[in-house]
Request: fold
Amino acid sequence: MSSSSSWDKIVFFFISFLGLCSAIEVSYDGKSLIINGERRIIFSGAVHYPRSTEEMWPNIIQKAKDGGLDAIETYIFWNHHEPARRKYDFSENLDFVKFFKLIQQAGLYAILRIGPYACAEWNYGGFPLWLHKMPGIELRTDNQVFKNEMSIFTSKIVNMAKEAKLFASQGGPVILAQIENEYGNIMWGYGDAGKAYMKWCAQMALAQNIGVPWFMCQQDDAPEGIINTCNGYYCDTFQPNNPNSPKMWTENWIGWFQKWGQRNPHRTGEDVAYSVARFFQNGGVLNNYYMYHGGTNFGRSAGGPYIMTSYDYDAPVDEYGNLNQPKWGHLKQLHAAIKLGEKILTDGIRVDRDFGSLVTLTTYTSNTTGGRFCFLSNANEHQDAYIDLKDGNDKYFVPAWSVTILDNCSKEVFNTAKVNSQTSIMVKKNNYSELPTGKLTWAWRPEAMKDTMKGMGKFKSNQLLEQKDLTLDVSDYLWYMTTINIKDESAWKNATLRVNTQGHVLHSFVNKRFVGSEFSQWGNGFTFETPISLKRGRNIITLLSATVGLANYGVKFDLAKTGIEGGPIQLIGKNNVTMDISNSSWSYKIGLNGEVKRLYDPSMYTSSTNNPPVGRRMTWYATHFKTPSGTDPVVVDLQGMGKGEAWINGQSIGRYWPSMIASSDGCDEECDYRGAYKPEKCNYNCGNPSQRWYHVPRSFLNNNQGNTLVLFEEIGGNPQNVSFRTVTIGTICAYGYEGALLELSCQGEKTISEIQFASFGDPQGKCGSFQKGSWEANNSKAIVEAACLGKENCELSVTREAFSASGIGNNATTIRLAVQALC
Ligand SMILES: *[C@@H]1O[C@H](CO)[C@@H](O)[C@H](O)[C@H]1NC(C)=O
Ligand SMILES: *[C@@H]1O[C@H](CO)[C@@H](O)[C@H](O)[C@H]1NC(C)=O
Ligand SMILES: *[C@@H]1O[C@H](CO)[C@@H](O)[C@H](O)[C@H]1NC(C)=O
Ligand SMILES: *[C@@H]1O[C@H](CO)[C@@H](O)[C@H](O)[C@H]1NC(C)=O
Ligand SMILES: *[C@@H]1O[C@H](CO)[C@@H](O)[C@H](O)[C@H]1NC(C)=O
Ligand SMILES: *[C@@H]1O[C@H](CO)[C@@H](O)[C@H](O)[C@H]1NC(C)=O
Ligand SMILES: *[C@@H]1O[C@H](CO)[C@@H](O)[C@H](O)[C@H]1NC(C)=O
Ligand SMILES: *[C@@H]1O[C@H](CO)[C@@H](O)[C@H](O)[C@H]1NC(C)=O
Ligand SMILES: *[C@@H]1O[C@H](CO)[C@@H](O)[C@H](O)[C@H]1NC(C)=O
Reply:
């Protein structure tokens, strides 16, 4: 082929322009990622774009950056992007390209987890339900139908990313990409086909030619060219299977998710910091928090069974976008401390020294400059340690279950158990001046059920069918209806209806009358029995089955059964005579009439009343409310309601179930950060609704015309106490250890209005009950007031000089400043 020389020059110029100005080279070896020739330590955090709104993204990204992150990681959510085969949606908060561009604008890197299996406590693990119905398909294994769909979707996302120049190789933010997810844990369940599939995934991914490395989480036999990474609460002992792969932690579980009926989990900042410091002490070079902002499972996106609407995850940025303090601040300081050693840690020579009792000093020495960086860890759960590194000169107090970071192996720059960040006590404010009567008035409509009460569905079968096979999850609801002819009335007057269901919730009606309900405790199958009375002649049995999120995890989770599949359903009459009606003629109807008629739409309601019905099943409620002033996040309190779904101005904010109460025991009075974390540790909110407050994103609200909240109440509730609040910081408390720079900050434009307590000395107690210790600097309070009162934020240097207390003894470990202030 011939080509003109001027063309060659233009092309050459274009390529060199790209190469010089934008392309970022990402490579790696066993020591670290190497970005544009520099060995890097990367702190990253997961933020799932559909779990917040476009309007929230910039603020969340900024908070991640301010928190010392280098990168943001997210999955791609296949089921939302391809709701129907080859019909794509990348609008609004599904605009992942915009999300990544915002990350880039903020100067951060990004990690792209295409999955396309997501897990993520996301409905059906992120698989579209139409996949489930494709003939011959088997998900996540060596199956041609599935592999074809997976490869088409993966290429679609990669091509969109390439078009938008999102990969670092094109000058974009994406430095790493992932294929499949945590397959290593469940591969055994698929036999040899699983192994073949995993290898195919690797080849398919590598063939996409994205110019940045690929990884697989928890795949300890990851093929050549793919980095296997760790997911877990602690990853210090993890080693990648390939010696040329850097040690990376793609999911540091910073908290935990919550199911309906569970207590709220809490993982302390001290323990998360400990896990991170241990990881870097042991050669880690990339840490991604799962989650950095958890957010909200809007609509019916929550996985299952029973994943709750709030996906707060106890993450550093809370569900609403507020800082979760002290966790956010403590980790910010940890990131800064570890970054001091970036050069030495990624290219140094490591030596460990054992002090006994699980105390270890790890020294990294730069091979080039001779510079040193140390971690001094105490993995003992109970015993604090005082460690002399140098003939009595350097005595370090290393509390139990903590790591001290020593810059130059001499200067303590951080200890994971010494928290120098404020605790923010959040409050939910009710501004009644915006609701003149202080109460909401309600309009309501019953769910129309004439058809289903008469047994009239859309199609019939002589079998009890699986729920999601029929609904394809377009609704939580499926009606199963049949008619039974009774000749001998006396045998069936006092009978029992017995239904075996695979879950999750069942309501039953006989001859148009409600006869009982039951829900599964944790989302598995159950047997429901209720007394019924059948009459002579035709009897109509109507069953409404509801799902609460489809399974998202486990071997072949996609095949987990829902609904009354197979039953059996029996009627038990006099003398235990049993009639199996599983194979009667069953009539089916998918979804609610109210869903079809769009009763979640504000225009469907006109007049309202002060006395809406209470405890009424299958009822739609609507109320009008003004937008709370200011910028603080808005929540709606649904205590008193039963179970259902909520919409704001026609947009779903998720399922609600405040009548689902968390167990009344198992909450720790004192949360001890020491010892290995597990989800049962440090629970709170025992005996209360597992979720009472529901996030109302401000972008769902109208500023002038007012707003409509619609509730579909499935099991019966009382809307009298439903109210709107804003979430903001009430009180802030902090301890600052000697030498620290303590930052205090209110939220938004609010200022510190009162210093309730301040003591530099050896103060005792906790937030809300601080006390002066055996001594204090006399002017503690006046000094703090001068620095902080009336300010949005302030910095306090916790030193003897600053508090004019140079005369005091040298009790270094006990000197600290305690402050309690009001915003
Ligand atoms: C340290 O540097 C020397 C000389 O450059 C090199 O031969 C050696 O392999 C390096 N050691 C390590 C552990 O990198
Ligand atoms: C580093 O530590 C050594 C002794 O451990 C000390 O002599 C030196 O001054 C320190 N350097 C810096 C920059 O702090
Ligand atoms: C309550 O709402 C009124 C009217 O919108 C506003 O002026 C006031 O500042 C609000 N108060 C608080 C505490 O937010
Ligand atoms: C129905 O059966 C229950 C127990 O199985 C019994 O207690 C009740 O008296 C019976 N009622 C009638 C009307 O037979
Ligand atoms: C019916 O069955 C139940 C439980 O299976 C049993 O306890 C009861 O005694 C039986 N009644 C009769 C009349 O057989
Ligand atoms: C119902 O039909 C299925 C499938 O034909 C069969 O396996 C089952 O035994 C039947 N059950 C009853 C109670 O007849
Ligand atoms: C509403 O709140 C009041 C006061 O806290 C309480 O007594 C009442 O039980 C609540 N009603 C409902 C339906 O939750
Ligand atoms: C505090 O004031 C008292 C009396 O004015 C004085 O005796 C004491 O030394 C002061 N303490 C400190 C720590 O400055
Ligand atoms: C310093 O510590 C010693 C021993 O723990 C104690 O006796 C002394 O009172 C402390 N001094 C101050 C100023 O707290």
Remarks:
- Residues 762, 774-775, 808-809, 811 surround 2-acetamido-2-deoxy-beta-D-glucopyranose (ligand 9) (CB under 6 Å).
- The chain is about 15% helix and 30% strand.
- Confidence is low (pLDDT under 50) at residues 1-21.
